[in-house]
Amino acid sequence: MNFNYTEEQLMLKDAVRKFSEKEIAPLVKWMESEKRTPRDLIKKIKDLGWCAIQYPEKYSGTGNTYVEYVIMQIEMARVYCSTACTISVNGMLGANIMKFATEEQKMKFLPEHLYGEGIGSFAFTEAATGSDPNALRTTCVRDGDEWVINGEKVFITNATMPGLMGIFCKDVEMGGKCTNIIIPKGTEGYSTPRIYDKMGMHGLEVSDVVLDNVRVPYENTTGGEAMRGKGFQVLLGSTQIGKLSVCAQAVGMAQAALEEAVNYSKVRVQRGKPISNFQTIQSLIGDMATDVMVAQQIVLATAFKASEGKELAADAARTRLFTSEAVHRVASKAMQVMGAYSYTTEFPIERIFRDAKLTEIYEGVNEIQRLIASTDLLR
Ligand SMILES: Cc1cc2nc3c(=O)[nH]c(=O)nc-3n(C[C@H](O)[C@H](O)[C@H](O)COP(=O)(O)OP(=O)(O)OC[C@H]3O[C@@H](n4cnc5c(N)ncnc54)[C@H](O)[C@@H]3O)c2cc1C
Fold it and tell me: Which of 321, 362, 370 to mutate to test the pocket of ligand 1 (most atoms within 8 A of CB)?
């Protein structure tokens, strides 16, 4: 067992950190106020190959693993979680294609998906279903060589941007079983009527999607005929990867919160000395550093397991539970260290505190993760 980063992993970590600090950090203020992500920022990230990390070279990937993917996500989220998340949702659709699509579909969709102008979306949630997959209402009906899709999705990330979207539908001819279909966003009948105004993650574009007689080729069924009606399998496979991204984002934000608190404690003077001299501050920072260390180790271990193609459900749920609650604790304690200034927009910590809350909610709420975390033990 070797716990050290390889030379290549260190280079990637360093490159993502430098890029994030130089190219993303100066845009954060704009993204927070405009509630958008500049399209050319996404293109720059894609051009660097960071949307292609976890894919084999055969499919235009860079041939690395989920460990390198997680390293990239941690470093990006350390600077701005919204951008890391925008990229990770592209990765969720990519995981769908990689795991379940036919060879022909991989060759057709992946090169553009990994390097093109657009950014992918993953559309499962509806008004009546966030945690209950059986309550889907969006339908797909076969009409000759085409699918006709009707319905409404809610809370869909990147839906306002061009690219591909994997939609989970109730397949009418299959008695309502779930089928996953890949559509190009912007196809006739596709619209995004409402963009959400959120508590945090302002750079993440999230909207409702209306599908009004959207027609796409029947051959866009993810995995072809063999996977028709097996959409829940697709959902479970890709949300495990989605969860891994959320864990990495939690680690990146926790790392940033810790760094901010440590730096502040060394310069803030009370009673004639930096507050880092007070045991109360040392104790808070000790707790935070412990959470960051454990969170980082378990996310890398789960990423390693994902790279080996091992069954991930329970591990991903446990990792998600720990990391999301850890970043919550760390951000809150960082605010205690920084006192009143932490509550102002002068310091990024108030944004991290708001952004961190989402890690306990999306990709399946933590209450559901607690149930999944016990499945392999109680089987
Ligand atoms: C910023 C943001 C981006 C998102 N992006 C996407 C996206 O790109 N694609 C997408 O498909 N979705 C997306 N979502 C949706 C997100 O994944 C869902 O909101 C999430 O899974 C929770 O669903 P819900 O809000 O309907 O919660 P509900 O299912 O209504 O759950 C509410 C509460 O009820 C309890 N509960 C519900 N069911 C159970 C149960 N079986 N057992 C125990 N307790 C239960 C839990 O305590 C839970 O917290 C996004 C959401 C947000 C906020």
Answer: 362
